[in-house]
Amino acid sequence: MDPIHVLRGHLGDVQSLSYLSEDQLYAGDSNGDLRLWDLASCRTDYTARLHDANSGILHLACLPEYGILLSQGRDGCVKLWAAGRTGTLDRPTPLQEIRTGSFNFCRCAVWAPGLVSQWRLPRPQAFRPAAAAGPADSLVAGPAGDPRDLLVACAGHDPADVNIWRPAEAPSIAARLRLSEGACTGADIRHGMCMALAFLSPSPALQHWSHPEKGVGTGEISRSDLEPLGEQGGSTSGRGNGDSSGIYSSSGNEGAASDPRFIVVGYEDGVVALWDLRNPGRPLGSLRTHTEPVMCLDVRARVQGRSTGNGRTALGAGRGNGNAAELYDLVSGSADDQISCCEVRPGGPQPLTLAKKLQLRENGTADVRIRSDGKLLACGCWDGRVRLFSVRRREPLAVLKYHRSHVTAVAFSPETQKLASASRDGTIALWSVYSSTSDAT
Questions:
Q1: What does the pLDDT read at residue 313?
Q2: Kind of pairing, strands 427-431 and 5-8?
């Protein structure tokens, strides 16, 4: 099978993809350049330099309803940009910048509360900084939610840590996941660097939740529900080089916070761990899924036979208290020659279980993505191939051959589910595969 279109124009390795709409695709490369591609004409609509050429763009996350584009470079910075209706950036400097202190290859994960779906709401006007605004006021609320309530998970200055940030409150850290010294016994060992991250998104079942005082809502964050917990149990926020605890109070009601409760972390030693953000000193469970470092993962909530949500850029609405779905599909790729398919049950006696390992012909997977209907899995591999698998049957479906070097990123379009693949050869291939939802069952 040949790609339906090939986009050429990047002068460096294309490292990240994020759809703005069905006909517009953001791409970031190793030179730090952003390109907005018009997929109807296969031409570049807009270019900008977001990060230094020495660091490049490691990851992009487009939040259309917020008018926000997030970029991450290997310069240790995560930047939030104001994006206009056409996708162009409204100003040459970012709205917010998080200096994470992390310079490895771990892509950040983003949680955007209050959205029923990434693609069902109209895109508002871009968010502009308020006049004479301070750091906490430089993002202005919009109809889809308050961008000040975005959460970004990144590897920390200590690469074994995971830091959770509210961009508007940087350099304060909302939470830090770090295995405590007292927990380092038995099966609990340090797993090396954090390599991949994904929030567990709640399912549509709790996208309209009931609150005893507020009635029916949309799942947006209420700051009164949150009580940051300091090192000694006080309500103090952790600083960039200090110790920080969870974004939930240990004495708080389990269903009182609308922030995400769970996050999955892949580590250097091949272990995948499930963390409860209320207990940042020890994971709920861990599982060795690979013999080499975990390079990528994706997770989606399985509800009534289908999967919903988004792991890398979790945009589901709801209370996010872990009861939104009983079961999640988790897929991870590694430097080894296998794809691991796991089941995640946050409330079960075994939070992580290995369902099946899919064998590859060559070592190395750079990116995995589960399609929004939860049926199709796309894997971007180091041998230049894109491999497709059935999520339900956990069987291979097809191998897409075009790229001459490592495939670095894959992404599905929001409506027709066209697949885009990016490569170190500087090209982006567009594929029409299994467009019928029954084809990949």
A1: 44
A2: antiparallel
Rounded Cα gap, residues 253 and 257, in angstroms:
8
pTM above threshold 0.85: no
The pair of structure tokens assigned to 180 is: 């405590």
Q: pLDDT (tens digit, 9 = 90+) per residue, 51-89?
A: 999 999 999 999 988 899 999 999 999 999 999 889 999
The residue ranges of DSSP E strands in 105-209, in sequence order, are 109-111, 151-155, 162-165, 175-177, 194-199
Amino acid letter for position 169? E
Instruction: Supply the pLDDT for residue 243.
Output: 42
Longest dimension (CA), the chain: 59
> What is the model's pLDDT at position 219?
31
Find out whether 59 and 41 touch, Cβ atoms under 8 Å: no
pLDDT for position 261 = 87
Q: Residue 281: what pLDDT?
A: 86
Alpha carbon 268 to chain centroid distance? 18
- The Cα 315–Cα 63 span in angstroms is 8
Residue type, 231: E
Distances (CA, A) of 43 to 21, 26, 209, 428: 15, 12, 43, 12
Report residue 10 as tokens: 């990047």
Residues (pLDDT < 70) of the chain are 114-146, 181-189, 202-259, 303-325, 436-441
Amino acid at 152: V
Q: Which two tokens stand for residue 284?
A: 């709920």
In the Cβ-directed half-sphere of 46, how many Cα atoms lie within 13 Å? 16
Hey, what are 263's tokens? 């996050």
Could you give the C-alpha distances from 108 to 134, 250, 265, 407, in angstroms and in order? 25, 26, 11, 19
